[in-house]
Amino acid sequence: MMAEIKGGAVIERGENAEGLKKMGFGVVHGDGVALSFEEALYLLEKGKIEIAGAGGKELKRRGIKKDGQFPDRCLLFKFLRDNGYVVRPAEETGVYRVYEKGVLPGEDNAKTIVRLIDDAWKATAKELKNEVGLAHRLRKRFVFAVMEKGGKPTFFELRKREFW
Question: Any idea which architecture 1-66 has in CATH?
Answer without folding.
Answer: 3-Layer(aba) Sandwich (3.40)
